[in-house]
Design brief:
It is a single chain. The protein has a single domain, classed as NADH Oxidase (3-Layer(aba) Sandwich), CATH 3.40.109. The protein contains 7 helices and 4 strands, in the order ααβααβαβαβα. Strands 1-2-4-3 form a 4-stranded antiparallel β-sheet, sandwiched between helices. The longest helix is centred in the middle third of the chain and has 34 residues. The radius of gyration is 17 Å and the shape is globular. The two termini are about 30 Å apart.
Length: about 180
């Protein structure tokens, strides 16, 4: 009996169709689509199943404008109707894994969850852009973070344009077989 019966073509189509959108329509995101994305990110694997991360769902226009400024003027963050801010929880991870948990595992947990959210958004017909360039201290202040470490901002919305597919390195230049 197979582990899971799934339509793998749908997954690979989702991966193939994911793009980084930097222009969004003002169209609101349906709550059922947002819920599917948030539910999907909870299924992401995490070190020790601790889920040492949290996600801020930012719909507030002023806060998104402040996030755009904190991200060195990436104004599409304010344009997208929702931004998800993924934060690592170093204390939660270090309680079980010590320094490595605080410095690595919680970061990995947050990024894997963001990846799941990004693919789920693509699967439900939404566009995203992963933003990693931002001033950590500014984001902490905007979101009133205490011990959370901001890791990524993921914009969500309907694309105002379909970004071109970007070229990737040849598989042999990335994959090393030993």
């Amino acid at each position: 009996m197979p582990y899971l019966e799934v339509n793998s073509l749908d997954f690979f189509d989702t991966v193939e169709n994911r793009r980084s959108a930097r222009a969004y329509l003002s169209k609101e995101i349906e709550e059922d689509k947002l819920k599917r994305i948030l539910t999907a990110l909870l299924r992401a694997p995490s070190a020790g199943n601790l889920q040492a991360y949290c996600v801020f769902v930012v719909k507030n226009q002023k806060i998104r404008e402040n996030l755009a400024r904190a991200a060195f003027g990436q104004h599409f963050i304010a344009e997208a109707p929702i931004s998800l801010v993924f934060c690592a929880l170093p204390d939660k991870s270090s309680a079980k894994y010590g320094k490595r948990g605080a410095e690595l595992y919680c970061i990995q947990d947050a990024t894997i969850a963001a990846s799941y959210a990004q693919l789920a958004a693509t699967a439900v017909g939404l566009a995203t852009c992963w933003v990693g360039a931002f001033d950590d201290d500014a984001v902490k202040k905007i979101l009133s973070l205490k011990k959370e470490k901001p890791v990524a901002i993921l914009t969500l919305g309907y694309a105002a344009e379909i970004p071109e597919k970007t070229e990737r390195e040849p598989i042999d230049s990335i994959i090393k077989k030993i």
